[in-house]
Q: What sequence folds into this?
């Protein structure tokens, strides 16, 4: 009971930190577009006054704070470390400043100190709730994007300031001054009275600030992007999956698509079941039912969900059957019925009867036109014929990849897929499909 209470406190503390960042992001955006509010915020963040952690007028600061809120909501460990370092430094600075009487006399400063301290405390209390790992290359990539992007954006801002400067004493400003002004506008919408000879229209200042927003987005994406490349199927994994499909593959018509080689596999402890998935846009997407013995499915689903949780991925499943959907739902996923599939028992299928009249007429029309269908296993098709069929398939397909169904192997003619079926439709001459 005590452990559950501690976990609840940690989760509420983590949630409070996220909601603080969301509220500050909203105020930053609002003060960036509401001029009078923005002026009030800036006035309360100068000289002897300071605002709470990250509260400052500007699109860039708004985007930065919002992105931190999103990454904290996804429990990114890197976002927690960054917030703790920044807010801790701000808190120490605020505490030091409060030693001066001229700072202590402003009630606003006490409020800012308390809010910042509360945010730091929520981070410390909820620290174990931020567990998601990122890619190890993220810090280096973010540094490169930030350095190069700041140089390019500051030069673009300087050129825009030069082109729109309508000050009467514009000749007093140098390009270096305009570069400094543009760089300042990249990070804030602060007062420009310190730059004589520079007067730009409001839209130009906003444009520079929006440019900085794009830069911040690029840097934050590079810094906090989820790990996307996980271990693809090895030859051993594929062999084990094929063995499971031989024994249990008849349960799921989509099971064979688990053999796409860019996917990753999570095995149950017994090796009797596996969840095959692919990471797309921060989502760990599994397709179809788990492969293998249904009794072992929970043993594979649990580790898959744990892996998604550890990396901050959102788990999702597409195309699971009713039984698998029930098992996934028991593990906390929500099930949504989006359709079904028709299974034809070829031994009993017939075109006779009133119910099949429309299908029978369509069949007869195609047959009278001279079309014939041939069905063969890939392993029964000679190599030269297979090469011809692959060429025709490439000509027929619209686009670089297979489409028309939610799943595809994407490797037509692969030697490992000899039991797959090739259907050809011929008009008496060349194959037409």
A:
């Amino acid at each position: 009971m005590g452990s559950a209470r501690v976990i609840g406190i940690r989760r509420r503390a983590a949630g409070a930190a996220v909601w603080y960042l969301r509220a500050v992001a909203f105020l930053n955006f609002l003060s960036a577009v509401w001029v009078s509010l923005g002026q009030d915020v800036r006035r309360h963040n100068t000289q002897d006054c300071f605002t709470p952690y990250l509260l400052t007028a500007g699109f860039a600061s708004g985007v930065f704070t919002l992105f931190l809120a999103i990454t904290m909501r996804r429990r990114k460990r890197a976002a927690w470390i960054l917030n703790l370092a920044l807010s801790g430094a701000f808190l120490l600075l605020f505490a030091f400043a409060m030693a001066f009487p001229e700072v202590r006399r402003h009630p606003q400063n006490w409020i800012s100190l308390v809010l910042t301290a509360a945010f730091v405390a929520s981070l410390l209390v909820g620290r174990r709730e931020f567990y998601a790992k990122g890619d190890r290359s993220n810090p280096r990539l973010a540094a490169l994007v930030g350095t190069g992007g700041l140089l390019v954006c500051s030069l673009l801002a300087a050129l825009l300031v030069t082109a729109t400067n309508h000050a009467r004493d514009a000749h007093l400003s140098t390009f270096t001054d305009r570069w400094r002004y543009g760089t300042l506008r990249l990070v804030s919408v602060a007062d420009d009275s310190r730059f004589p000879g520079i007067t730009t229209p409001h839209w130009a200042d906003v444009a520079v600030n929006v440019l900085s927003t794009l830069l911040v987005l690029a840097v934050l994406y590079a810094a906090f992007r989820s790990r996307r490349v996980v271990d693809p199927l090895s030859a051993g994994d594929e062999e084990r999956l094929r063995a499971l499909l031989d024994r249990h593959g008849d349960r799921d018509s989509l099971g064979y698509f688990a053999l796409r080689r860019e996917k990753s596999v999570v095995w149950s402890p017994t090796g009797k079941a596996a969840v095959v998935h692919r990471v797309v846009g921060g989502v760990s997407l599994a397709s179809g039912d788990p492969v293998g013995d249904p009794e072992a499915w929970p043993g594979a689903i649990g580790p898959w969900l744990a892996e998604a949780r550890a990396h901050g991925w959102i788990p999702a499943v597409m195309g699971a059957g009713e039984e698998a959907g029930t098992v996934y739902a028991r593990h906390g996923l929500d099930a949504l019925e989006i359709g079904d599939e028709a299974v034809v028992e070829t031994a009993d299928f017939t075109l006779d009867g009133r119910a099949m009249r429309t299908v029978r007429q369509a069949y007869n029309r195609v047959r009278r036109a001279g079309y014939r269908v041939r069905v063969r296993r890939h392993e029964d098709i000679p190599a030269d014929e297979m090469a011809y069929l692959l060429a025709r398939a490439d000509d027929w397909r619209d686009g670089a990849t297979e489409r028309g169904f939610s799943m595809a192997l994407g490797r037509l003619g692969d030697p490992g897929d000899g039991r797959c079926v090739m259907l050809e439709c011929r008009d008496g001459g060349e194959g037409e499909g």
